[in-house]
User: Fold this.
Amino acid sequence: MTEIGFKDFETLESFIAKEQHLHPQSRGAFSNLLRRVGLATKIIGSKVQRAGLLNVLGSADGINVQGEQQAKLDVLANEVMRATFRWMPSISGLASEEDDDVVNLPTRLEGQGQYVVLFDPLDGSSNIDANVSVGTIFSIHRCQSTDGRCRLSDFLQPGNRQVAAGYVVYGSSTMFVYTTGSGVHGFTLDPEVGEYVLSHENIRVPDVCKCFSANDTNYKKWDEGSRRFADHVRYSGEERYKKTSSRYVGSLVSDFHRNLLYGGIFMYPADAKTGKGKLRLLYEASPLAMVIEQAGGAATTGPQRILDIVPKELHQRVPLIIGNKHEVELYEKMVKEASAK
Ligand code: AHG
Ligand code: MN
Ligand code: MN
Assistant:
């Protein structure tokens, strides 16, 4: 019998179903939630891929809670996420970079509303009009409230309690990368089938520092330890850094994804004067920190592991240094030494 030529493939759907089998007590609510994230990002991706043809380029009228000018695609992506999750029985509430406060979804029945979802609906939106890759980042926590309603406290949970985290990068291909704590897995969208197909099973960050990724125009605003670390990677001549290249896209998801696959370090330290970082803990740093740790890397503020931070505010910003464990540990050591002086 001649081969028909169909090469079997594993989709996000079937992979999630297989993972569910590892938890016999599971009734599939979590699997359905993850599938919904897949659907939402396929819708967003379809708008991003045609952004120049739809009236979604440029700025929207609003300024978001971050004090940033919203891009039209920020608003659209946010609406897609909210609409896609609205009637998911297992989700009791949402938190978004684009919304001032948490959103309580319509009251769930007894025993439903087990999860809350936090997201950056469109990351890197300043790059949209120039057709540079952007992404969506998501984080899923158990809802601690048990009355089917959620409260701010359900969102202010440390990253080490996430039940799942991941992102989608809308780049030369659209890739969905996530972890539920059993490794990191990547799925490439097959536009002909409309499914995310497993393309990168069990991603491990290579122990090479191929890329150094930072917005160097902030160098003078960094603390002494951050500057020493950057100088060491770029100018020490150490064997490990002989082939390190500087790469900075300006979309966190794209810089992160490249470093996850190639090896490298991304740093966005605090502004030494204000003591504040730029990136948001709950829906940027925490989810990516879970992914990188599951892939064998690390993520820190310098003094603290990202996943151990107990959030105080919904839109809290943190310094973020994330990538190879070797570089993160070296950064922590240099920052500690510099602050001891
Ligand atoms: P967002 O578009 O969701 O606001 O995120 C933008 C972030 C992040 O994607 C990126 O790493 C960082 O802003 C770039 O900041 P600079 O332009 O200051 O380098
Ligand atoms: Mn972002
Ligand atoms: Mn954003």
The first strand starts at residue 59 and ends at 63. The pocket of AHG (ligand 1) is lined by residues 68, 97, 120, 123-125, 215, 250-252, 278 (CB under 6 Å). Residues 110 and 147 are 7 Å apart (CA to CA). Residues 29-49 form the longest helix (21 residues).
